[in-house]
Amino acid sequence: MAGVLAADPTLADFGKDPLWIIIVKAVMVFLFLGLGVVFGVWFERKLISRMQNRYGPNRAGKFGLLQSVADAIKMGLKEDLFPRTVDRVLYLLAPVIMVVPAMLAFSIVPFGPVVSLFGVRTPLQLVDLPVAVLFMLAMGAVSVYGVVLAGWSSRSPYALLGGLRSAAQVVSYEIAMGLSFVAVFLFAGTLSTSEIVKAQGETWFVFLLIPSFLIYVICMFGEAARIPFDLPEGEGELVGGFQTEYSSSLKFALIMMGEYLHTFTASAMAVTLFLGGWRAPIPISWWEGANQGYWPVLWFLIKFVLTFSFIIWVRASLPRVRYDQLMSLGWKVLIPVNLAWILLVAGVRSVMLNEESRMIALGVTGVVVIGALAIWTRFDTVNQRRKEAQKAQAEAEFEELSEEPAAGGFPVPPLDLPHYHGVSRP
User: Fold this and answer.
1) In terms of DSSP bridges, do strands 419-420 and 423-424 run parallel, antiparallel, or are they unpaired?
2) To which H or E segment does residue 250 belong?
3) 3-state secondary structure string, 133-178?
4) Cβ atoms within 10 Å, residue 409
5) Angle subtended by helix axes 67-77 and 19-51, to nearest 10
6) For residue 11, how many other CB atoms are within 10 A of its CB?
7) Where does the record say this protein resides (predicted)?
8) CA 307, CA 348: separation in Å to the nearest integer?
9) How many whole angstroms separate alpha carbon 270 and alpha carbon 308?
């Protein structure tokens, strides 16, 4: 185990690489994201098609592997149209703002331990920061500007509504997502992604912090705007959402790429913060060399693909929710539950780190739990009374309608309707 711990990167290992190694690692991350988007689209279409008992892409290339490549070439070569009323600068800039922050957010993801890359000892991670997780949240918030600008610059009501939906959705779910990370920070003692992976050497945080993980999974769908939370592009009510005025050209391809990169970042952060990062699962971790060399890259990719497959499975299984349900879940459920859970975790960590504050922490935790139960009981009682009042009002309205003249069991409108444009209607 000493060799495994020695291979764990720390913040001190970053900033020492020569420039050419940094360029090589940046190119490797870019190729991973570019190829990941191309074959991720194929994988999603293929997996959903098998769930729906059909073949999916099977014409372009073996098993349809070149279908996404053909689609990308087609969108890149199509005529680039500009609606007359758009703000051209922001209209062109919006897709770029969506893609670039998503790529930058992936730079803090650790793929493996310290290895020898072309003869240079370097961590398998482009960069790490003392506030790396906050950097990821900031990049996710910046990419929303691309969605908002895409909707506003299009000068279309449907696109604008999609952009406003995305802004409101990210505000609510970014708060809940950030709160779900607090428990991880309390246990890891750092915001560095490499240090968080190192802190999961004994036990993955998904087992210690199950509520935080479940809340993050829900917020992950809201943050990445994936079904069942893809309200910014709800086709049923917004035609196509914020990208309504973007033709199927290179700009549209960049928007789709930005959304996929957002999903990739959410999956990678789930693996890094809760699923042990690049560490091998049990029983593979019992092998002494499982977490050394380039083997951890394989474990990371397996976890990453499984997480991405879960997102696809949810898309194939659940319908889109209403917008009021989405916002109610974020503000009325996830954030209060998160706050109560953080107080509980903080109390437990205080007990673990300081024996003298054990009684104080237990007392505060007990008060918080009792207060939360009291608030929940009060809320449930008020909600029940509201439902009973609504039911009584509906029954009264039904009885009032049933007293009016009816035809075949249905109420008929009154015969003395008002005049319309001087013509009396019977």
Assistant:
1) antiparallel
2) helix 250-273
3) HHHHHHHHHHHHHHHHHHHHHCCCHHHHHHHHHHHHHHHHHHHHHH
4) 6
5) 110
6) 14
7) Cell membrane; Membrane
8) 29
9) 10
Q: Which amino acid is located at 193 in the chain?
A: T
User: Where do the DSSP E strands lie in 246-380?
Assistant: none
Burial class of residue 335, CB neighbours in 10 A (0-12, 13-18, 19+): middle
How much is the average pLDDT of 102-109? 89
Rounded distance between C-alpha atoms, residue 80 and residue 156, angstroms: 18
Which residue is associated with the tokens 């000892």? 121
Amino acid (one-letter) located at 129: L
Residues 83-120 as b/e (b if ≥16 CB within 10 A, e otherwise) read eeebeeebbebbbebbbbbbbbbbbbbbbbbbbebeee
Cα angle, residue 330 at apex, residues 233 and 131 outer, rounded to 5°: 95
224-276 pLDDT, tens digit each: 778 788 777 766 666 677 777 777 678 888 888 888 888 899 999 999 999 98
Let me know: does 151 contact 159? Beta carbons within 8 Å: yes
The helix or strand, by DSSP H or E, that contains position 121, with its residue range, turns out to be strand 120-123
What phi, psi does 59 have (nearest 5°)? -110, -50
Give the C-alpha separation, 173 to 230, whole Å: 13
Q: DSSP for 4-73?
A: HHHT---GGGTT-S-HHHHHHHHHHHHHHHHHHHHHHHHHHHHHHHHHTTS--S-SSSGGGTTHHHHHHH
- Closest by Cα among 390, 202, 180 to 269: 180
Tokens of 286: 């019992």
In the chain, the amino acid numbered 221 is F
The three-state secondary structure class of 292 is: coil
Which pLDDT tens digit goes with each residue over 354-413? 655 556 656 666 676 677 677 767 666 777 777 788 877 877 766 665 555 554 555 555
Q: Which of 28, 49, 148 is nearest to 90 (CA)?
A: 148
Yes or no: say if 291 and 285 are a contact pair by the CB < 8 Å rule. yes
CB 295 within 8 A of CB 280: yes
C-alpha to C-alpha distance for 186 and 189, rounded to whole angstroms: 5
Cα atoms found within 13 Å of the Cα of residue 27, Cβ hemisphere only: 6
Token reading at 64: 């349809």
Sign of CA dihedral 281, 286, 287, 289: positive
